[in-house]
Amino acid sequence: MTDGPVGLLFGPVTPLAVEAVCMTNVLYNLILTTDCLGNILAMWIYCKENSVQRLAGAEYTGSKGVNAMASYRIIVDLSDRALYLLDGDTVVRQYPIAVGKVLTSTPEGEYRIINKQENPGGPFGVLWMGLSRPHYGIHGTNDPSSIGKAVSHGCIRMYNEDVLALSAMAPVGTRVTIRS
Question: N or C: at which end does the chain have fewer Cβ atoms within 10 angstroms?
Fold first, then answer.
């Protein structure tokens, strides 16, 4: 499918566009040129209209398919010190977390994951997922003993292996609800 004719809709960046859109359902880590954007739109439409089920190792079925792509969202419960990954209204994963301390509490509200950065360095562990509230995110830690405690500057800390697993299932754009 990615070997289509080069032209208005297909070009040398088509495989990248197909992989990015069909694997993550969200645009990130791409430099969007006019050609790339056209390819992304064309291939996304193709995937949806033709119920593409497997492409580049990802699963997707459009409106004609029977297994729609998971619609994940995240709930962070500050009092439980737990992060829940939900598919619709069903909890599919639960992770222990660390939250903000009294003077730098984790802000309640509705946010989105807006970016991801692997190996950000310092106290952020192996991965940073930035939230739509500036300067806040969900990240790993270089201090695993902090998980389960109120010790951060407001971010949500996770064990490194947990934040990697969460990141694999929650693309950029995933809704994050933080509540007490």
Answer: C
